Amino acid sequence: MGFGDLKSHAGLKVLNDYLADKSYIEGYVPSQADVVVFEALSSPPSSDLFHALRWYNHIRSYEKEKSSLPGVKKPLGKYGPAEIEDTTAAESKAAAAAAAAEDDDDDIDLFGSDEEEEESEEAKRIKEERLAQYEAKKSKKPALIAKSSILLDVKPWDDETDMAKLEECVRSINLDGLVWGSSKLVPVGYGIKKLQIQCVVEDDKVGTDQLEELITGFEDFVQSMDVAAFNKI
Length: 233
Hints:
This protein is α+β, with helices and mostly antiparallel strands. It has helices spanning 9-18, 32-40, 50-60, 87-106, 114-139, 163-171, 208-215; strands spanning 147-156, 178-189, 192-202, 222-232. Helix content is 40%, strand content 19%. A hairpin with a 2-residue loop joins strand 2 (178-189) and strand 3 (192-202). The chain is elongated. The model is unreliable at 83-92 (pLDDT under 50).
């Protein structure tokens, strides 16, 4: 199994096809499997490999958190599409399994023994202990943080509003789980420009209603605020 050389177009094509119906390399959340494959790429996939590019941009957003993602890293060759097993070999394995099952049937003791019953109880106890250890270990893994990228339109009262001061007021809002990004002024007509500003928020900590209340609180500069775009990341 594997993707091959991920620095070649052929390898990236295999990765793109593999991700056509998948969000991640393994499972349903980002994991160390995604980190291993991501780090094997020398550059982002080209735009024609849109499944791979979509996955690449998503995993890149977890750059600061990649060490805390769940799972254990394996060699790159352990990830990717499985090779098709040879039919003859598969048939041989099936025949061997059938023969082994017949031998097991011949060895069945219909009456059993107390010793075998004790061994079964011991195996059950060990299995339960291992399950408990697994659940305890699983509960200690850090939970993934749900984030959203939001584009805000902040409108002034008129063309005489000091837009530099308006932006300064907006960026002065400091919340746990809020990171301000790039911004620009966009003409809306009659010499008036609105502030268009990007931010990333942690969904459990910051909401758009909260942002609107805080931003419109600068009533000397801000007339209104709208959400221009909202994307989960």
